[in-house]
Amino acid sequence: MLKRLIPHPFLSLTLVFVWLALVNKFTLGNLLLGILFGIVIPMLTAPYWPDRPKIRHPLKGLEYVLVVLWDIVVANVQVAAIVLFKREQDIHSKWIVVPLDVTSAEAITVLAGTITMTPGTVSTMLSADGASILVHCLHTDDPDAVRDEIKNRYERRLKEIFQ
Amino acid sequence: MNFVVELLIAISLVVSGVFGLVGSYGLVKLKDSLQRLHAPTKATTLGVGGVLVASMIYFYAKTGYLSVHELLITIFLLLTAPITANFIAKTYMARNLKRNELPDSQSSCGWSIYDEPPATRPGSSES
Questions:
Q1: Could you tell me the pTM of the whole model?
Q2: B69 touching chain A per CB within 8 A
Protein backbone atom coordinates (compact mmCIF):
# COMPACT_ATOMS: atom_id res chain seq x y z
CA MET A 1 0.00 0.00 0.00
CA LEU A 2 2.70 2.43 1.04
CA LYS A 3 4.77 1.41 -1.96
CA ARG A 4 1.90 2.17 -4.31
CA LEU A 5 1.19 5.49 -2.67
CA ILE A 6 4.84 6.60 -2.66
CA PRO A 7 6.60 4.76 -5.49
CA HIS A 8 9.60 7.06 -5.38
CA PRO A 9 10.26 8.16 -1.76
CA PHE A 10 13.39 10.16 -2.60
CA LEU A 11 11.58 12.23 -5.24
CA SER A 12 8.67 12.80 -2.83
CA LEU A 13 11.04 14.04 -0.10
CA THR A 14 12.80 16.33 -2.59
CA LEU A 15 9.46 17.79 -3.71
CA VAL A 16 8.38 18.45 -0.11
CA PHE A 17 11.71 20.17 0.58
CA VAL A 18 11.59 22.25 -2.61
CA TRP A 19 8.04 23.34 -1.88
CA LEU A 20 8.87 24.40 1.68
CA ALA A 21 11.98 26.21 0.42
CA LEU A 22 9.98 28.03 -2.26
CA VAL A 23 7.40 29.22 0.25
CA ASN A 24 10.26 30.04 2.61
CA LYS A 25 8.07 29.75 5.68
CA PHE A 26 7.47 26.62 7.71
CA THR A 27 3.80 26.20 8.66
CA LEU A 28 1.62 23.12 9.02
CA GLY A 29 -0.47 24.12 6.00
CA ASN A 30 2.57 24.45 3.79
CA LEU A 31 3.90 21.11 5.01
CA LEU A 32 0.60 19.41 4.17
CA LEU A 33 0.48 21.03 0.73
CA GLY A 34 4.09 19.97 0.16
CA ILE A 35 3.27 16.39 1.12
CA LEU A 36 0.30 16.48 -1.27
CA PHE A 37 2.63 17.54 -4.09
CA GLY A 38 5.13 14.88 -3.01
CA ILE A 39 2.44 12.23 -3.49
CA VAL A 40 0.66 13.53 -6.60
CA ILE A 41 3.60 14.60 -8.78
CA PRO A 42 5.48 11.24 -8.66
CA MET A 43 2.21 9.50 -9.63
CA LEU A 44 1.69 11.81 -12.61
CA THR A 45 5.29 11.56 -13.80
CA ALA A 46 5.73 7.82 -13.21
CA PRO A 47 5.48 6.97 -16.97
CA TYR A 48 8.60 9.06 -17.60
CA TRP A 49 10.96 7.01 -15.44
CA PRO A 50 10.36 3.38 -16.38
CA ASP A 51 13.66 1.92 -15.12
CA ARG A 52 15.33 4.21 -12.64
CA PRO A 53 18.58 3.20 -10.98
CA LYS A 54 18.79 2.08 -7.38
CA ILE A 55 20.76 4.37 -5.14
CA ARG A 56 22.68 1.97 -2.95
CA HIS A 57 24.45 4.29 -0.56
CA PRO A 58 22.70 7.62 0.16
CA LEU A 59 25.49 8.56 2.60
CA LYS A 60 28.11 8.10 -0.09
CA GLY A 61 25.95 10.41 -2.20
CA LEU A 62 26.25 13.06 0.49
CA GLU A 63 30.02 12.59 0.58
CA TYR A 64 30.09 12.97 -3.20
CA VAL A 65 28.13 16.24 -3.04
CA LEU A 66 30.55 17.66 -0.45
CA VAL A 67 33.62 16.61 -2.46
CA VAL A 68 32.16 18.22 -5.59
CA LEU A 69 31.21 21.44 -3.77
CA TRP A 70 34.75 21.77 -2.45
CA ASP A 71 36.18 21.06 -5.90
CA ILE A 72 33.96 23.74 -7.41
CA VAL A 73 35.51 26.33 -5.08
CA VAL A 74 39.02 25.11 -5.96
CA ALA A 75 38.10 25.07 -9.67
CA ASN A 76 36.95 28.68 -9.51
CA VAL A 77 40.26 29.81 -8.07
CA GLN A 78 42.31 27.74 -10.53
CA VAL A 79 40.44 28.95 -13.60
CA ALA A 80 40.59 32.53 -12.35
CA ALA A 81 44.37 32.18 -11.94
CA ILE A 82 44.73 30.78 -15.48
CA VAL A 83 42.59 33.54 -16.95
CA LEU A 84 44.42 36.30 -15.08
CA PHE A 85 48.06 35.25 -15.03
CA LYS A 86 48.73 33.05 -18.04
CA ARG A 87 49.63 34.56 -21.37
CA GLU A 88 47.40 33.52 -24.23
CA GLN A 89 50.01 31.36 -25.95
CA ASP A 90 50.86 29.57 -22.68
CA ILE A 91 47.37 28.15 -22.29
CA HIS A 92 47.51 24.62 -23.67
CA SER A 93 43.97 23.36 -24.23
CA LYS A 94 43.62 19.66 -24.86
CA TRP A 95 41.00 17.06 -25.64
CA ILE A 96 40.82 14.21 -23.17
CA VAL A 97 39.00 10.95 -23.80
CA VAL A 98 37.72 9.27 -20.63
CA PRO A 99 36.54 5.68 -21.07
CA LEU A 100 33.51 5.11 -18.84
CA ASP A 101 32.87 2.21 -16.46
CA VAL A 102 29.50 3.49 -15.29
CA THR A 103 26.68 2.46 -17.60
CA SER A 104 23.41 3.92 -16.30
CA ALA A 105 22.24 7.11 -18.00
CA GLU A 106 21.76 8.84 -14.63
CA ALA A 107 25.30 8.13 -13.43
CA ILE A 108 26.76 9.36 -16.73
CA THR A 109 24.65 12.54 -16.51
CA VAL A 110 25.88 13.28 -12.99
CA LEU A 111 29.48 12.56 -14.02
CA ALA A 112 29.24 14.86 -17.07
CA GLY A 113 27.79 17.65 -14.92
CA THR A 114 30.51 17.17 -12.34
CA ILE A 115 33.25 17.31 -14.96
CA THR A 116 31.87 20.58 -16.29
CA MET A 117 31.74 22.18 -12.84
CA THR A 118 35.22 21.11 -11.67
CA PRO A 119 38.84 22.10 -12.37
CA GLY A 120 39.42 23.38 -15.89
CA THR A 121 37.37 20.74 -17.67
CA VAL A 122 34.13 20.82 -19.68
CA SER A 123 32.44 17.62 -20.80
CA THR A 124 31.41 18.06 -24.42
CA MET A 125 30.25 14.79 -25.88
CA LEU A 126 29.60 11.10 -25.41
CA SER A 127 30.52 8.42 -27.88
CA ALA A 128 27.41 7.12 -29.64
CA ASP A 129 27.28 3.98 -27.49
CA GLY A 130 27.89 5.86 -24.25
CA ALA A 131 31.17 4.07 -23.53
CA SER A 132 33.45 7.09 -23.36
CA ILE A 133 33.17 10.81 -22.81
CA LEU A 134 35.02 13.63 -24.55
CA VAL A 135 36.35 16.29 -22.20
CA HIS A 136 37.84 19.64 -23.12
CA CYS A 137 40.56 20.77 -20.73
CA LEU A 138 41.39 24.47 -20.50
CA HIS A 139 45.02 24.05 -19.53
CA THR A 140 47.05 20.93 -18.89
CA ASP A 141 50.46 19.52 -19.74
CA ASP A 142 49.58 16.01 -18.58
CA PRO A 143 46.26 14.81 -20.06
CA ASP A 144 46.61 11.31 -18.61
CA ALA A 145 46.77 12.65 -15.06
CA VAL A 146 43.54 14.59 -15.59
CA ARG A 147 41.86 11.50 -16.97
CA ASP A 148 43.00 9.39 -14.02
CA GLU A 149 41.81 12.01 -11.56
CA ILE A 150 38.34 12.07 -13.11
CA LYS A 151 38.20 8.28 -12.97
CA ASN A 152 39.51 7.94 -9.42
CA ARG A 153 37.90 10.91 -7.77
CA TYR A 154 34.44 11.02 -9.32
CA GLU A 155 33.68 7.92 -11.32
CA ARG A 156 34.79 5.51 -8.58
CA ARG A 157 32.44 7.20 -6.10
CA LEU A 158 29.55 7.25 -8.58
CA LYS A 159 30.06 3.55 -9.22
CA GLU A 160 29.74 2.87 -5.51
CA ILE A 161 26.58 4.97 -5.33
CA PHE A 162 24.75 3.67 -8.37
CA GLN A 163 25.94 0.09 -8.84
CA MET B 1 24.00 44.29 13.00
CA ASN B 2 27.37 43.94 14.59
CA PHE B 3 30.73 44.42 12.98
CA VAL B 4 31.58 40.75 12.37
CA VAL B 5 28.36 40.13 10.45
CA GLU B 6 28.88 43.20 8.29
CA LEU B 7 32.47 42.12 7.64
CA LEU B 8 31.32 38.65 6.54
CA ILE B 9 28.73 40.13 4.19
CA ALA B 10 31.26 42.57 2.75
CA ILE B 11 33.82 39.81 2.16
CA SER B 12 31.32 37.58 0.34
CA LEU B 13 30.17 40.47 -1.83
CA VAL B 14 33.73 41.46 -2.75
CA VAL B 15 34.71 37.85 -3.50
CA SER B 16 31.67 37.40 -5.73
CA GLY B 17 32.34 40.69 -7.51
CA VAL B 18 35.95 39.73 -8.19
CA PHE B 19 35.00 36.32 -9.60
CA GLY B 20 32.25 37.78 -11.74
CA LEU B 21 34.74 40.27 -13.16
CA VAL B 22 37.35 37.57 -13.82
CA GLY B 23 34.75 35.39 -15.53
CA SER B 24 33.75 38.23 -17.84
CA TYR B 25 37.39 39.13 -18.49
CA GLY B 26 37.99 35.49 -19.43
CA LEU B 27 35.33 35.79 -22.12
CA VAL B 28 37.30 38.63 -23.67
CA LYS B 29 40.77 37.20 -23.23
CA LEU B 30 40.54 33.53 -24.22
CA LYS B 31 40.89 32.88 -27.89
CA ASP B 32 38.40 30.26 -29.09
CA SER B 33 34.85 29.38 -28.19
CA LEU B 34 35.66 26.19 -26.36
CA GLN B 35 38.18 27.95 -24.14
CA ARG B 36 35.73 30.77 -23.50
CA LEU B 37 33.24 28.21 -22.28
CA HIS B 38 35.46 27.56 -19.25
CA ALA B 39 35.25 31.10 -17.89
CA PRO B 40 31.48 31.48 -17.43
CA THR B 41 30.84 27.90 -16.28
CA LYS B 42 33.28 28.17 -13.40
CA ALA B 43 34.39 31.61 -12.40
CA THR B 44 30.82 32.85 -12.24
CA THR B 45 29.55 29.98 -10.08
CA LEU B 46 31.44 31.41 -7.15
CA GLY B 47 30.43 34.89 -8.28
CA VAL B 48 26.74 34.15 -7.91
CA GLY B 49 27.40 31.93 -4.88
CA GLY B 50 29.03 34.80 -3.00
CA VAL B 51 26.02 37.08 -3.47
CA LEU B 52 23.72 34.31 -2.27
CA VAL B 53 25.81 33.68 0.85
CA ALA B 54 25.84 37.41 1.58
CA SER B 55 22.07 37.54 1.14
CA MET B 56 21.55 34.60 3.49
CA ILE B 57 23.73 36.11 6.22
CA TYR B 58 22.10 39.53 5.83
CA PHE B 59 18.53 38.28 6.16
CA TYR B 60 19.43 35.97 9.02
CA ALA B 61 21.01 38.85 10.91
CA LYS B 62 18.20 41.24 10.07
CA THR B 63 15.10 39.10 10.62
CA GLY B 64 16.34 36.09 12.57
CA TYR B 65 14.86 33.68 10.00
CA LEU B 66 17.01 31.51 7.81
CA SER B 67 16.11 32.19 4.19
CA VAL B 68 16.36 29.08 2.01
CA HIS B 69 15.54 30.67 -1.35
CA GLU B 70 19.25 31.21 -1.85
CA LEU B 71 19.91 27.50 -1.34
CA LEU B 72 17.37 26.69 -4.05
CA ILE B 73 18.97 29.17 -6.44
CA THR B 74 22.34 27.53 -5.82
CA ILE B 75 20.96 24.06 -6.48
CA PHE B 76 19.20 25.08 -9.69
CA LEU B 77 22.30 26.94 -10.84
CA LEU B 78 24.53 23.92 -10.26
CA LEU B 79 22.05 21.70 -12.09
CA THR B 80 21.56 23.93 -15.14
CA ALA B 81 25.02 25.42 -15.77
CA PRO B 82 26.61 22.17 -17.10
CA ILE B 83 23.66 21.59 -19.44
CA THR B 84 23.94 25.04 -21.00
CA ALA B 85 27.70 24.55 -21.36
CA ASN B 86 27.12 21.17 -23.00
CA PHE B 87 24.65 22.65 -25.50
CA ILE B 88 27.01 25.47 -26.44
CA ALA B 89 29.93 23.05 -26.82
CA LYS B 90 27.94 20.67 -29.00
CA THR B 91 26.61 23.43 -31.23
CA TYR B 92 30.13 24.79 -31.68
CA MET B 93 31.51 21.36 -32.51
CA ALA B 94 28.74 20.52 -34.95
CA ARG B 95 29.34 23.76 -36.84
CA ASN B 96 33.10 24.13 -36.68
CA LEU B 97 34.90 20.87 -36.00
CA LYS B 98 35.45 18.02 -38.41
CA ARG B 99 35.39 14.42 -37.33
CA ASN B 100 39.15 14.03 -37.76
CA GLU B 101 39.97 17.00 -35.52
CA LEU B 102 38.74 15.10 -32.48
CA PRO B 103 40.61 12.26 -30.75
CA ASP B 104 39.43 8.70 -31.29
CA SER B 105 36.56 7.67 -29.01
CA GLN B 106 38.30 4.42 -27.89
CA SER B 107 35.03 2.52 -28.15
CA SER B 108 33.13 0.67 -30.87
CA CYS B 109 31.22 3.80 -31.96
CA GLY B 110 32.34 7.29 -32.86
CA TRP B 111 31.27 10.51 -31.13
CA SER B 112 27.56 11.04 -30.91
CA ILE B 113 27.21 14.09 -33.17
CA TYR B 114 28.75 12.14 -36.07
CA ASP B 115 27.64 8.55 -35.48
CA GLU B 116 24.33 6.84 -34.96
CA PRO B 117 23.95 4.93 -31.67
CA PRO B 118 23.96 1.13 -31.95
CA ALA B 119 20.46 -0.30 -32.40
CA THR B 120 20.70 -2.59 -29.38
CA ARG B 121 20.44 0.17 -26.79
CA PRO B 122 17.73 2.55 -27.96
CA GLY B 123 17.62 5.88 -26.24
CA SER B 124 20.40 5.16 -23.80
CA SER B 125 23.24 6.87 -25.66
CA GLU B 126 22.57 10.45 -24.68
CA SER B 127 23.01 11.96 -21.28
A1: 0.79
A2: yes
**What is the distance between the alpha carbons of residues B15 and A12, in angstroms, rounded to a whole number?**
36
**CB proximity B104 to A under 8 Å:** yes
Average pLDDT, rounded, for chain A: 81
Q: Write out the residue range of the structural domain in which residue A20 sits.
A: 2-48
Instruction: Count how many domains chain B has.
Output: 1
**A14 and A91 share one domain:** no
**Domain shared by A42 and A66, yes or no:** no
CA–CA separation, A76 and A135 (whole Å): 18
- Please, which pLDDT band fits residue B126 given cuts at 50, 70 and 90? very low
Q: How many CB atoms lie within 10 A of CB B21?
A: 15
Residues A115 and A83 in one domain: yes
ipTM: 0.75
Report if residue A53 sits inside a domain. Answer: no
Cβ–Cβ below 8 Å for B86 and A123: yes
Position A140 scores a pLDDT of: 78
Dist CA A68 CA B49 (whole Å): 15
A22 chain-B contacts, CB cut-off 8 A: 69, 72
Task: Indicate the SS3 state at residue A122.
Answer: strand
Minimal-distance CA residue of chain B relative to A95: B103
Quick check: A101 pLDDT over 50? yes
- Do residues A35 and A71 both lie within one domain? no
Name which of B22, B89, B114 is nearest A124 (Cβ-Cβ).
B89
Give the count of domains, chain A: 2
Query: Does the beta-carbon distance from B125 to A128 stay under 8 Å?
Result: yes
Question: Where does the pLDDT of residue B13 fall: very low under 50, low under 70, confident under 90, or very high at 90 and above?
Answer: very high
A72 interfacial to chain B (CB closer than 8 Å):
yes
